């Protein structure tokens, strides 16, 4: 029978693929993580991770074990959280985060409705930078994040769950004000092959980066990668400096007007979809109640 610290060490290392970050998340030493994994591998009889001096990867047996253990461990955690909350009701402080000014306004509205329905539960709202949303959720700094997510995100990222689409908006391209694209009334996604694309931080899941900053156009033309940035304001500053372009939602034109940046609508790009995101094991009663409140608020607004 696996002990709790063994399960936590294995699942966390499988997510992070880095002993140092795993140790930080578990608040133990790197040596402790290494010892725990080695002990677990001796019990199983085969390596669970393939290690080199430069990277850590799950072995085939490790991958199988992760896929079988993770759902069960998530269910145990969720059941315990719900049992605790059922005993004391929806109370305490719900920690939520947003990226971008428009998302912040939406969260404020959802929070007001949630507090009317759940007067014993407070809501703490924080702004997250682009590269922080996944880290904050995994480190339990927040319970919910409002962010733009690609379709099928939970299926590609099994450590997370999402609520329904709250807002759908057209995609635009942020370009330098002096660029020829800035004089257009619209443009095609295929035009991205002609300019460098600024990159999202590698702390974000691959599926999200592929959706927001793809490496190729739909027809297969390569898109040159530009510099990366950690915040949205950094992205716009790099765009204004002529170092690349960056896809954004239509709300950027209202909330982030700048003299050095122009926003050009795409004529053929799918819309950006904004949803609430939480850890797969974090669907507590107050998280689900907040998700319902947010959905009801935008539904009534429409």
Top keywords for this entry?
302 residues; single chain; alpha/beta; 3 domains; six-stranded mixed sheet; D-Maltodextrin-Binding Protein, domain 2; 20% strand; three-stranded antiparallel sheet; Arc Repressor Mutant, subunit A
Q: Would you kindly provide a written description of the structure presented here, covering whatever features stand out?
A:
The chain has 302 residues and is an alpha/beta fold. It has 3 domains: 4-83, Winged helix-like DNA-binding domain superfamily/Winged helix DNA-binding domain (Arc Repressor Mutant, subunit A, Orthogonal Bundle), CATH 1.10.10; 90-167 and 273-301, 3-Layer(aba) Sandwich (D-Maltodextrin-Binding Protein, domain 2); 171-270, 3-Layer(aba) Sandwich (D-Maltodextrin-Binding Protein, domain 2), CATH 3.40.190. It contains 11 helices and 13 strands. The protein has helices spanning 4-16, 19-26, 30-44, 60-88, 101-117, 133-138, 153-156, 206-212, 232-240, 252-255, 285-301, and strands at residues 49-51, 56-58, 92-98, 121-127, 144-148, 160-162, 167-169, 171-176, 197-199, 225-228, 246-249, 261-265, 272-279. The strands form 4 sheets. Strands 3, 4, 5, 6, 7 and 13 form a 6-stranded mixed β-sheet that branches. The protein has a 3-stranded antiparallel β-sheet with strand order 11-8-12. Strand 9 (197-199), helix 8 and strand 10 form a beta-alpha-beta unit. Helix 1 packs across helix 3, helix 1 (4-16) packs across helix 4 (60-88) and helix 5 crosses helix 11 (285-301). The radius of gyration is 21 Å and the shape is globular. 32% of the residues are buried. The model has no long low-confidence stretch (mean pLDDT 90).
């Amino acid at each position: 029978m696996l002990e709790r610290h063994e399960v936590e060490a294995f699942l966390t290392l499988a997510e992070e693929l880095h002993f140092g970050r795993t140790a930080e998340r578990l608040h133990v030493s790197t040596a402790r993580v290494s010892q725990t994994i080695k002990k677990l591998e001796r019990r199983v009889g085969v390596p669970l991770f393939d290690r080199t001096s430069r990277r850590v990867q799950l072995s085939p047996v490790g991958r199988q074990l992760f896929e079988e253990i993770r759902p069960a461990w998530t269910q145990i955690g969720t059941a315990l959280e719900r049992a605790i909350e059922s005993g004391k009701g929806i109370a305490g402080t719900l920690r939520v985060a947003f990226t971008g000014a428009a998302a912040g306004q939406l969260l404020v509205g959802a929070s007001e409705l949630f507090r009317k329905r759940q007067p014993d539960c407070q809501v703490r709202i924080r702004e997250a930078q682009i590269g922080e949303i996944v880290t904050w959720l995994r480190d339990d700094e927040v319970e919910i994040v409002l962010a733009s997510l690609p379709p099928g995100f939970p299926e590609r990222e099994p450590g997370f769950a999402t609520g329904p689409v709250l807002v759908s908006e057209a995609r635009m391209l942020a370009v330098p004000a002096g660029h020829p694209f800035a004089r257009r009334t619209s443009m095609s996604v295929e035009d991205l092959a002609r300019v460098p694309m600024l990159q999202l931080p590698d702390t974000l899941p691959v599926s999200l980066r592929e959706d927001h900053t793809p490496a190729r156009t739909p027809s297969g033309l390569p898109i040159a990668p530009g510099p990366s940035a950690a915040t949205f304001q950094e992205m716009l500053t790099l765009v204004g400096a002529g170092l690349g372009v960056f896809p954004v939602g239509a709300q950027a034109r209202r909330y982030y007007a700048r003299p050095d940046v122009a926003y050009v609508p795409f004529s053929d790009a799918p819309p950006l979809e904004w949803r609430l995101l939480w850890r797969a094991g974090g669907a507590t009663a107050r998280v689900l109640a907040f998700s319902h409140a947010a959905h009801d608020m935008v539904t009534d607004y429409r």
